[in-house]
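Predict structure. Chain length: 134.
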Amino acid sequence: MIIHFEDEHFIIVQKQPKEPCQSDETGDMDLCTDLENFINTRDNNKGKSKINLYVVHRLDRPVGGIIAYAKSKLAADRLTKLIKDRSFKKTYLCVTCGEPVEKSAILVHHLKKKAGQISASPFIKITKALKRPD
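Prediction complete.
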């Protein structure tokens, strides 16, 4: 587990691809529960009470990246407000095969999700019924 930052309000960690960031219907071990177990085991002998983390944003299951969890309801509410007000900047990077022609661009791609499945796949045929992902 890679912890990038931790204080009394937040913990920011690396989420691995294919790892759920919170519990879901699959019952697979998720990062939030794993992290709670890690913190509670680590801090057990330090006289601290058991911690429950708050999920304030998510990364899709297939995606790896950095994710922040709040350690209190107040911290979660404040970070959620920053995200809602768009004061929280998210940057997405992708790996490509070969060198892109343009140094920077905006890629818009539509995904479709089959009922009962967790993953999504690219939607090749664009229709008016599709919504932009932003």
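Summary: The beta strands are 3-6, 10-15, 54-55, 65-70, 111-113, 120-122.
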